[in-house]
Amino acid sequence: MEAANAAATTVVRGAWVLSMDPARELLRDGAVAFDAGGEILAVGPWEELRERFSGAEVVGDGNGIVLPGFVNCHTHLTEGLITGMGETASLWEWFDRVVEPAGRVTTREDVRVGTKLKGAEMLLSGITTVNDMSCHRNLGSLASLGAADGLVEMGLRGIVSFGAENLYDGAPGEDVFMAEHEALADRLSSEPLVGFRLGIGTILGVSDELMTRSVAACAEHGWGVHTHLAEVREEVTESRHRYAGRTTIEHSAHVGLLDHEVIAGHCIWCGEHDLSLLAAKDVAVAHSPVANMILASGVCPVPRLRREGVRVGIGTDGAASNDNQDMFGAVKAAALLQKVHHLRADAITAIDVMRMATIEGARALGLDREVGSLVAGKRADVTLLDGNTPELAAIHDPWQQVVYCATSRCVSHVWVDGAPRVADGRLAQQELREIVVEGREQAIDLAERAALGGESVLTGGEGRAFPASAREETVGVV
Ligand SMILES: [Zn+2]
């Protein structure tokens, strides 16, 4: 029977297979076989699979590394066209300078085009699953649906939420925000690869009524939640002032939000009670080390969270606060940040970081029954790294080689649900150049509509690149 189906079977071969299956996380000279329907048939020694699937298409020459597609646990696809600005700003300043002006005019088409651009970047970085929170202030435009459109076009697996926040001047009534959640859930209801969560941009950003209605909607529909918690120190101070001494984590528990399935970005500024709440409520954490460093937000207590049994995945965070969607950068930063913070080279290991970037991330999103590890019966989200590259020519230790040596340039092939998305280092089903040209034109248009001339040279203005004053202010501050 296997011979009859062999022609429709793909066998991916590597010098190493990092299956992330606890039963055998690492296989030397291994292979993964999956069928045309996208189901993994077998993971095992290459010699064994070669015999068993003798007529199959074989990809990989036995020098590379096969791993599950990366799970990017946290991003904002609404930021796909506003990258590389605001480097001297911390979170709240950066939001005012870059994200808010763009968010006021962002359309569904902006987000669709930006999602395709960043989707291409993610696929070429070995990412197969992405957890998105699309945030904007152009209510009525249903801009967050553009992320759904773009992910479906790119063939990525993912979850999209609308990161609602309504505490700002001129915000419409709560009904309008709830309507966008509903519209996004409807848009995604029949998509096989992209699911929905209810988004809450920040706890401090929503009115009591919107919070109450959001919690009620989760109870009614069984929706999971995607939010940010304890990202910056000033969030804790502001929250204690506003919510009778409660932190945002404590307030989330107080209003019942944490009684639902929650993944929260960051969780940096956690006190002991916050940590115990995250563990007791089984809140998953999306750690985005690059964004945390760019915005000078702080250091997530990753080892402590994991010791407490909290599920911790790795995210790139949005393209405006990373400022790319490169998973290798996020993975390496996740290791480096803990080492330098604790001044201990053994603060975290490459194998732990790889678990967070794959199976633990899938667990954080509730997708670990389908993806996150290479196991027969799971879906075929597979990334092959090319061993014939300067970075991977000599693999002394496969875990460290991926975390510290590999870059996106090493990504040779990517399959999502068994479908080829990257082949020989190029997008398999899309023209990258067309996506880039479309993205560039849309970014110029958005920058002009958002009047981003103070930050962006794309509008024809000087941005912050030319004035001498902008350069001087960054010299000798500390
Ligand atoms: Zn975020």
Automatic annotation (TrEMBL):
Alphabetical list of PANTHER family matching this protein: AMIDOHYDROLASE-RELATED DOMAIN-CONTAINING PROTEIN, AMINOHYDROLASE SSNA-RELATED
Matches recorded under InterPro entries: Amidohydro-rel, Metal-dep_hydrolase_composite, Metal_Hydrolase, MTA/SAH_deaminase
Keyword annotations for this protein, in alphabetical order, are: Hydrolase
**Classification via CDD domains:** ATZ_TRZ_like
Q: Identify this protein by name.
A: Amidohydrolase
Q: Which residues form the Amidohydrolase-related domain?
A: 65-418
Q: Does the keyword Metal-binding apply?
A: no
Question: Coiled-coil ranges per the record?
Answer: none
Q: Name the lineage.
A: Bacteria, Bacillati, Actinomycetota, Thermoleophilia, Solirubrobacterales
Source organism of the structure? Conexibacter woesei (strain DSM 14684 / CCUG 47730 / CIP 108061 / JCM 11494 / NBRC 100937 / ID131577)
Q: Which GO terms describe its molecular function?
A: hydrolase activity, acting on carbon-nitrogen (but not peptide) bonds
Q: Which Pfam families does UniProt cross-reference here?
A: Amidohydro_1
